[in-house]
Amino acid sequence: ATLKSAKVLAEDLSWAGGKTHLVIVGDILDRGPKSRAVMDLLMRLEGEAVAAGGLVHVLIGNHESMILIGDMRYTSEDEYAAFASEEDPDERNRGLRLFVERQGGDPRELRAKFNEQFPPGYFAMRRAFRPDGHYGEWLLKKNIIDVINGTAFVHGGLSPEIAHLGLAGVNEKLQKELVDYVKVLATLMDAEILLPTDSHYDISTIL
Q: Which end of the chain is more exposed for a tag (fewer CB within 10 A), N or C?
């Protein structure tokens, strides 16, 4: 509704902004039940805007980083549900088995805990945000800061580090650190050293 009122979107949700630059300063995740639909819209608009001479800038906020590294504290059941149709039952059953083995204890109690903590769609969502996943690959290419017409756009404010690293340095350094970390997590999960059900905050203890 906001983008329509700003004449950036047409009624059919196609790009109507011409040469406009649309800037999204992060936190498109963990903010409501339709975060996947928001990402799909922005991914489509990126191409449509370029074709019209405009540009869509999607920047990384802390909640994008959190999902990429497996910190799912604020993710809602509705957000998981958007991925439920793509979750293989075998994938979910394997996740349950490994979770029970990792936790130890009464399997019936652990099954109830598993279903509460990891709603339908959880595993498919985690897979989609891997470095080779549909949304993970897209987000890991995004900048931390963009400067447009002399105005800096960033999520949460400017760090003093920018004085030392410069704009390109901040984007390259922080983006590389995030990419490297997410790739290491994926490698450890493929080897089942880490599990998708492991809390981000328990990783150092597990390793």
A: N
pTM above 0.90, yes or no: yes
Indicate the DSSP class of residue 85: G
> How far is the C-alpha of 65 from the C-alpha of 101, rounded, in Å?
29
Amino acid at 123: F
Quickly list H helices, the chain. 2-5, 35-51, 62-69, 77-81, 89-103, 107-117, 122-128, 134-139, 162-190, 203-206
**DSSP codes, 163-207:** HHHHHHHHHHHHHHHHHHHHHHHHHHHHTTSS-TTS-GGGHHHH-
- How many angstroms separate the CA atoms of 12 and 44, rounded? 13
pLDDT digits (tens, 9 = 90+) for 19-76: 999 999 999 999 889 999 999 999 999 999 999 999 999 999 999 999 999 999 999 9
8 A C-beta contact, residue 195 and residue 122: no
In terms of C-beta density within 10 A (0-12 exposed, 13-18 middle, 19 or more buried), how is residue 41 classed?
middle
Give residue 128's identity as a one-letter amino acid code. Answer: A
Cα dist. 81→124, 133, 161 in Å? 10, 17, 39
Please, which pLDDT band fits residue 122 given cuts at 50, 70 and 90?
A: very high
